[in-house]
Specification:
This protein has 218 residues and is α/β, with parallel strands linked by helices. Helix content is 33%, strand content 20%. It has eight helices and eight strands, in the order βαβαβαβαββαβαβαα. Strands 1-8-7-6-5-4-3-2 form an eight-stranded parallel β-sheet. Helix 1 runs parallel beside helix 8, helix 2 runs parallel beside helix 3 and helix 5 runs parallel beside helix 6. The protein is globular, with a radius of gyration of 16 Å.
Length: 218
């Protein structure tokens, strides 16, 4: 299974967003991670459809849109129209998770489900075969720059084992506290889509991206 880097623009400089997207693109990052926060499901508010639409022409990379919002099914078509390729919804935020996953697929997009640190993998029991990806949160969502919660690494390992036992090819994404010093351990646990924000956008963006990709080579 291939490894993919998904830099999180939550940590980018929004006065230079187009330029910084081009830097991660040139360095070889395959995805762009876009966190949408509503101030209800999580405490913070980030950005929405106008920002995504405005940056879509800046790169042809995969737009990995992470919806940290209540009942995201209400807005799936709008995010699809803005240029999303993958839409990730939180199991905790969906009254009807199966319906939401099916709605993403019907829009021609790749569905993914995110789990907060304390949410059991059992939340995926009936939808896992329908998913392109599962996002394991390594921190409690809502703020950038947090430290990884140690027990989440074992959760990634358990999920990879579950995916393999069920004969699936589901991607496992991780988000929160991922740095150059712990990414190797995270990959060894079974993750193959790596989200990082501060560790990429603080300092030399091109160089930081290249360092991550070098560590992620198989």
């Amino acid at each position: 299974m291939n490894n993919y880097l998904s830099p999180s623009i939550l940590s980018a400089d929004f006065t230079r967003l187009g330029e910084q997207l081009q830097a991660i693109d040139a360095a070889g990052a395959e995805y762009v991670h876009i966190d949408v926060m509503d101030g209800v499901f999580v405490p913070s508010i980030s950005f929405g459809m106008p920002v995504i639409k405005s940056i879509r022409p800046c790169t042809s990379r995969v737009f990995d849109v992470h919806l940290m919002i209540e009942e995201p099914v209400r807005y799936l078509k709008e995010f699809a129209d803005c240029g999303a390729d993958i839409i990730t919804v939180h199991a905790e935020a969906c009254k009807h998770l199966d319906r939401t996953v099916e709605a993403i697929r019907e829009l021609g997009l790749r569905p993914a489900v995110a789990l907060n640190p304390a949410t059991s993998l059992s939340a995926l029991d009936y939808v896992l075969p329908k998913l392109d990806m599962v996002l394991v949160m390594l921190v409690n969502p809502g703020f950038g720059g947090q430290k990884l919660i140690p027990y989440t690494i074992e959760k990634v390992r358990e999920l990879r084992s579950l995916v393999e036992k069920r004969g699936l090819s589901t991607n496992i994404e991780v988000d929160g506290g991922v740095t150059l010093t712990n990414v190797t351990e995270i990959l060894e646990a079974g993750a193959n889509v790596i989200v990082s924000g501060s560790s990429i956008f603080k300092g030399d963006i091109f160089g930081n991206t290249e360092q991550f990709l070098k560590l992620m080579e198989k």
